[in-house]
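Re: Re: token formats

Sure, here are both.
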Amino acid sequence: PFMHQIILHGPQGELTRVKALFDDGTMVGVMCASIFNQIKHRLNNWMTSSKNLRMANRNIVKSIAKWSGTVEINSIKAQCGFKVFDSAGSWGFLFGKPMLKAFKVIHDYTSDTIKIFDNLHSTTIKNQIV
């Protein structure tokens, strides 16, 4: 697994740091409800959601909220969004395919690094898994 801190930008300039698991098998960005409940007051621009999500094991779970805004990794920023549901502690945040695409991610599995890009800059981040 590849983990790295991301920063979610709130509407009043709040910066909320979250440890994310980069997962190119996840079709959406998702945050566990337990993490979301701790930080939602800093994001403000979230909305309730009742969309159903199909898990890899084919189970259907109901999303309880969604958020979209600016996400930052090592000074590289992109507009992204994620859904919220209870993962029962399996993970805190999954950085899924739409978010990987927004940051134009290139994963080098040999060095266990990821290169990310915006329109002007790029940077390489190292796996922060402990």
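Second one below.
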Amino acid sequence: MTDPKHKFRVAICGGGIGGLTLAVALTSYPDIDVQVYEAAGKLAEIGAGVMIWGRTWKILTTLGLAPTLRRVAGVSVDKDIEPDFGFEFRRSDRPEGFTFFRLSLPFITYLFHRAHFLNVLVERLPANIAHLGKRLRTYSHDTSSGEIALEFADGSSATCDILIGSDGIKSAVRRCMYERKAAAGKPELLKHVEPRFTGWVVYRSLVPVEKLVKDEKTHRIFHQPMMYCGVHKHVVSYGIANGKLGNVVGFHSIPVDDNTTYDGPWVSEVLRDEVVDRFAGWEPELQDLIQPIEKALKWAIHALHPLPTYLDGRVALLGDAAHAMTPHQGAGAGQAVEDAYVLAGILGDPSTTRDTLTIALQAYDRIRVPFANHVLKGSYESGRMYEFWNEEGEDYERLPHAISHQWDWVESDTPEEQIEKALRWMREANMQTRSSDHVNDTLN
């Protein structure tokens, strides 16, 4: 039952970047009760670098997180002028590489260690709202009360007015949601339950800066983010952790394996030799970057087919649970933050009450599904471009233009504009509902 001092209760299933951003954002609304349920025994992220674009940085600034995150990134807190950001693209799968494109993006961009980023969010959580070791087994709707009942694998249960599934690419919430939809007469939606293998395998490694020094000079990734490109392979690298670590990420694609089942663990640890062998014969600059690697995490990159909806009544998806994407534009974490910010803006609006929650979530769905799906598809296409298996191939005149336009979304339809659109639609929908109710009352 909802506490009288709260207008409704929000349960967030999943304590990653998206879920915790939503929790932090909603804590600014004292009349909304927020509880976070995390399957793991602690709030932690795996992985290495995370890229935050300017549109997302504005959200983090609004939430009061910018000063701490600046210190984590090694950027002066009182800095007024933000540098442009971009990658230098090199053809590197040969003994003598060459630069074929310098992408300059006029946006603020920050690079973080993923665990450091999450820790900043954890520190902002109020006490007693995070519940660990709570792996969701299923949920159900109580049609009479409107409540949602949660059942966890440990035998415990909880209730809420809204359930937000931010539980990652293998989301239990999405599984329940789409199995329910399939059972209700749409079996074609079962393809959205499980992620698809994209054909890409990636090697992720963090290399200390002292191991990336040659002739008394540090590797240029610490002052220029780099994209080393080859046929069906590429390496992206840049400095993180205040310049103390080099984030080295090597990709290998087998296009015919796209949309198949991956045979093996999604994440495994491998030794240096496998990474070095994968990029044998590449230019010396790239060899200087991968030779110091001692071990790496090998990931089979999975993603979702674009979902037609994130909703099942008062249950909604967010972040990777909604739009897990390939990492080729560094957009996954940022899109999770944007989901959270837009949803918090809708739920926190004074017009949103327990009676209008369904319409509020529909507003979120109408705005975020097309935008996030656009980024999801664009990220996949970007990876193809970096490895010369898109329609531009190895055409060095056409390819830079195509790559540049892949980033157009960064300056379009800002999260603030999305909130305004959602609230405008929601108010119109609420007015239509009240008008319809009035007509029905008159007829009765």
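Residues 76-81 have pLDDT under 50 and may be disordered. The CA atoms of residues 314 and 358 lie 6 Å apart.
- S.
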